[in-house]
Amino acid sequence: MKKVGIRFKSAGKVYDFDSGAFVLNVGDYVIVETEQGMSFGSVVVPPEPYDDSSLEKPFKKVYRLATAKDFEEIEKNKERENIAYAFCLECIRDLKLEMNLFSVESTFDGIKLTFFFTADGRIDFRQLVKMLVRELGCRIEMRQVGIRNQTKMTGGLGRCGRRTCCSTFLEKFEPISIRMAKEQGLSLNPTKISGQCGRLMCCLTFENETYRLLKKDFPSPGKTVTTKHGQGKVIRLNPICSRLTVRLESGAEMEIRLDELSTKQEQEIQ
Q1: What is the tens place of the pLDDT at every residue in 126-161?
Q2: Does residue 262 have a pLDDT over 70?
Q3: CA geometry: angle at 112 spanning 149 and 37, to 5°?
Q4: Which of 40, 88, 159, 214 is the most buried (most CB within 10 A)?
Q5: Rounded CA separation 102/116 (Å)
Q6: Distances (CA, A) of 193 to 123, 170, 184, 203
Q7: Across 17-21, 49-53, 80-84, 232-236, which has the greatest mean pLDDT?
Q8: What is the dihedral of CA 148, 149, 150, 155, to 10 degrees?
């Protein structure tokens, strides 16, 4: 028996399915049966053997490979989502609801539409749902999410110039603290360490361990060190470039490489 990893959304969670008799490769599109009905997904983890005796319940099986007709259905669903989005916005304005609608998703079979929105508090959207059901003729789900989830779903460019991490490869959000910014020697100005969502940048989390490991070889700021230019006090660290800034006894500041510390000093650090 073999299992295969299927992803339904970009940077979304990977779910395991029984590949059955299908020969699947990464990048293949398949139709699988889920709790939400038939769903369209792509293979991101190639098939590998597994032991079903340790599972609480067996994996659902891949139903079939996707066909050209399935891709046509996906395009129809996108058009339906756009129509539903525009109509819902009109209803929100008419009902004067304080909510920010940002996405609509249809199930593959088209029997349900999910409307994603953000809001400062609880929203009474019962009347809105009635209007949507009457107009669209399908099951409606309203889902309120946080601002970080909105950024993950809509995507965008970070201050680094690349696509946001949450919308490209992060499957889930990890806790982030201001201490991580301090550990990495970043400015504590909120505008410089916050992402598009207004929260601390996700990269502070997955880069933090690298900084922590690299700084093990460095003397701590404020410590007196000996260099070939004389003694001085460490005032800044640049672990990524393996350099540190030292203020010499003369008052001059000098950036040196870590390996330029005296042999005695290196032994003290270790």
Answers
A1: 999 999 999 999 999 999 998 888 888 888 888 888
A2: no
A3: 95
A4: 88
A5: 6
A6: 31, 18, 11, 10
A7: 80-84
A8: 90
| Cross-strand bridge partners of residue 6 | 15, 43
Please give the model's pTM, rounded to 2 decimal places.
0.72
Burial class of 115 by CB neighbour count within 10 A (0 to 12, 13 to 18, 19+): buried
Overall average pLDDT of the 75-95 stretch: 94
When pLDDT is averaged across residues 193-209 and rounded to a whole number, the result is 87
CATH class name, domain 71-145: alpha beta
Closest to 148 measured CA to CA, from 194, 84, 81: 194
CATH of 219-269, one of 2.30.30, 2.60.120, 3.30.450, 3.90.1530: 2.30.30
Asked if 265 and 233 count as a contact pair (C-beta separation under 8 A), the reply is: no
Where does the chain hold its CATH 3.30.300 domain(s)? Answer: 71-145
Residues 211 and 184 sit within 8 Å (Cβ to Cβ): yes
